[in-house]
Amino acid sequence: MTQATKIDQKQQTITELFIEKARAAAAFVTEVATYEEAVNYSIDLCGKQGACRLKVSGCEEHLSPDAEGLCETKQEKIIAAPALDEDDYKLLFDTSTANGFSCIKSGMRSQLAGVDIGFSYADIGIAETGTLVLNCPSEELRIATMVCEYHICILRKSQIVADAFDAAERLDSYMQNAPNYTAFITGPSRTADIERVLTIGVHGPLELHILLLED
Amino acid sequence: MQQAKDLKKYRQECQESLENDFLRSALDTFAVAYRTSRTNAFEGIDVNGLIDEVAGMKDDALTRLDELYDQFKKNAEAAGVTVHYAKDADDANAIISRIAKETDCQKIIKSKSMTAEETLLNHALEDEGLEVTESDLGEWIIQLRHEGPSHMVMPAIHLSRFQVRDLFSDVTGSEQTEDIEKLVKVARRELRQKFAEADMGITGANFAVANSGAIGLVTNEGNARLVTTLPRVHIALMGIDKLVPSIEDALKILKVLTRNATGQPITSYVTWVTGANECEIGADHKKDIHFVMLDNGRREMAKDPLFSQVFRCVRCGACANVCPVYRLVGGHKMGHIYIGAIGLILTYFFHGPEKAKNLVQNCINCEACKDICAGGIDLPRLIKGVQARIQDEQGHPLPSLLLSKILKNRKLFHTLLRTAKWAQKPVAGDDGFMRHLPMMFFKEHDFKALPTIADKPFRDLWPEIKPQIDNPRFKVGLFSGCVQDFVYPEQMQAAVELFADNDVDMSFPMKQSCCGLPVQMMGEMKASRDVALQNLRAFEKEDVDYIITLCASCASHLKHNYPVLLEDDPKLKEKVDLFTAKVIDMSSFVHDVLKVSADDFDGDGKKTTFHAPCHLCRGLGVHDAPRNLMRTAGMDYREAAEEEVCCGFGGTYSAKFPELSQQLLNKKLDNVEATGAEMLLTDCPGCVMQLRGGLKKRDSQIEVKHTIEALSERRKKKQ
């Protein structure tokens, strides 16, 4: 066996572990061959799968007038993707608008009622726990990935490491480059604060979709 | 928040918790589920190795606390953060109020912070006219109810969905249902609105990373991400114990923290904030960030040779999860602000002896917390240490003074026990139980029948029954402990017979006394040391391979506590080491040393179950030996649920907190009865006393015996 095949096999094992652990944390994991496929996945989720709605989750409940007021500020079906490069953003924007969805990359502070989909890349994947690492000093990106109902996150397979200690050097380099804001994300937002009943989507996304991209 | 004036009031409050059916069933379900999820989360991980690593790293960090603080401050400030040092709770609250005023903040959104609970920060800020909203769901619920947390990680575990429904109906001014999913969504929307309008965010921190000036925040809900992102000012309040040298060290803690806290491999979110991040609404589009580092008694603790290990605490809350007393009474009774075993200790240092004095007595010393602690802290020992300190500061209660005086004089102690035999005559039954309790004092003890003192203690029987062994395989010294000597000498006799048939030569040094654990449990450390020395002297001239005790508590105390009690005298070290190396419990001796086999017994297939004494399974780490022995001796062993959970005896604990002892006993007996066993075995005379007394009260047909009795009865007799 050549050195290169050995490395490929090791990476394959790590990737399989990542998929298993991310799913165990209630994330949806799908492999995509190209970025275009990731865009199509998102449009499908937003449209056919019914993820994009005018009324975000919780707004159908009996709320106080203030909370109700914030709900009403959302008037469109929105995909937010603040940190993409120009080409990637253009494809997402064109496909979204063609399908009747609004696509934005800034102005997240006026979208605190919520957006339907937050679309981003992850920088590292940690197999041991199925965790995504997002180096996100950009405020827009942080808000987009928190106030979205569904977070779709692309992870390049080559960026998956076995455990957090294998990512320590990169994490340290992020932190040495202050200011910095780094997020570990594992599955959707959850709570068990009422009677220890596991409930999804208390503050952040209701669903986390990880798209593993070949590279 | 526990703040009863005296023990009587405290016991009343505990009783109220016992009557709260919802709390009881919620904590029961949690205790059982937690053990399984924790085991699963640590699958394939060397847990003890990891705990040792964390403990070693934290111990090392403690030796250079000042250096780490300076480094953290320098790096954080270079990255645009202001670092403040707060000497106590008032100081921290004042700093935070001042920042709010200077930055013109009115509305504050918070994520969960035990340190902010410790300083009662919300009250201080509200007194300044600021509006504070907790955003962690559980914290928000208890804030709205004007309560403190009842668990460090699950602050509202004591509340039902119906209580939350009523609360949320009030908050929204609109009728809610008890559907948990809907209630969570209501909180999502109500709190989103609070996030949107907040000027200031306040968080705690799980880590303060010295070499970068970063902080780490561990949450499931994601609220800390919003708290640190949306408002223009961010304050993180943290104890100086949160300092770690590097990100690698923080990751080590993270690996054990979430697994130990809730049985999760990791929480949904871990957030690392380094420096003044981008913030559109901040001055220069930068966030205004302040780190407030709190001392509040931590440095005093760090300097103390016994208590410095408290710094290893990562605030996972696991010590409450496994505490049988917490499970009965809940966090509001098992802590002032910090909860569980660590809470009893921290309360003394952070909130003073008045708040701690009742709490520290409510430890049954079962060691379940020590067994599970993420930092390897010897929690039961530290709890006793706090109790001893408070007694030294405030005076020793009469019973514990008396007992320690008596124990120091072995002859007096033994004479008293002999006299007790005559005193009990009028109330002693023929069946070995007291017929009725002689004193009003014991009225809460009515849940179990108490045994009578034996006609002849083992020490008087010994000269008559000492066997002659011609070609001994082993020479052993017998340590009886008070209960087997004076109450159950037949257990010792059973051991003598079985050992003799296995060619074991025995001696019984007459100058041995009580092991000393009862006085140590009462916080009488000096008396405990005196008795330890007596026993060491009693055995030092014996030429034996092993020192055997049939009492798991004695064994674990002799083995693990004597070295600590006697460490002040270095001249004794060699003797103590020799002594403790020889100490072994009966089951391990018969199983591992004598290596008995099925051929040695006539089995009868009797349906038998087991209670694992705390000091056997956790104190000595013995799990398999007694269970294998039951099978080897031909009994039909049936495992009971929660076999390794305390029976509620706890020595002097059952006299101090009879109501709680009774509840623990009931749970234990329910599990025993559910096995359908005819016989219950255990390796500790104290547990025998508790279990036998409880079953007698239930009119149960199940026999309770010490394991040695069951083994000895089934042995193929040679003599």
Features:
heterodimer, A: 215 residues, alpha/beta, Rossmann fold, six-stranded parallel beta sheet, B: 719 residues, four-stranded mixed beta sheet
Task: Describe the SSE topology.
The complex is a heterodimer of chains A (215) and B (719).
Chain A: H1 3-24, E1 28-32, H2 35-46, H3 65-72, E2 78-80, H4 86-98, E3 102-104, E4 115-121, E5 124-126, E6 131-135, H5 139-147, E7 148-156, E8 160-161, H6 164-176, E9 180-185, E10 190-191, E11 199-200, E12 207-213
Parallel strand pairs in A: 1-12, 2-3, 2-4, 4-7, 5-8, 7-12
Antiparallel strand pairs in A: 5-6, 6-9, 10-11
Chain B: H1 7-18, H2 21-41, H3 47-63, H4 65-78, E1 81-86, H5 89-102, E2 107-110, H6 114-118, H7 121-127, E3 131-134, H8 137-144, H9 161-172, H10 180-197, E4 200-203, E5 207-209, E6 214-219, H11 223-229, E7 233-239, E8 243-244, H12 247-262, E9 269-274, E10 288-294, H13 298-303, H14 318-321, H15 324-329, H16 340-351, H17 353-356, H18 368-372, H19 379-394, H20 398-408, H21 410-423, H22 458-465, E11 474-479, H23 481-486, H24 489-501, E12 504-507, H25 517-521, H26 525-540, E13 546-549, H27 552-565, H28 573-582, E14 583-585, H29 586-593, E15 607-611, H30 614-617, H31 624-632, E16 636-637, H32 653-656, H33 658-674, E17 679-682, H34 685-697, E18 703-706, H35 707-714
Parallel strand pairs in B: 1-10, 2-3, 2-4, 4-7, 5-8, 7-10, 11-12, 11-13, 13-14, 15-16, 15-17, 17-18
Antiparallel strand pairs in B: 5-6, 6-9
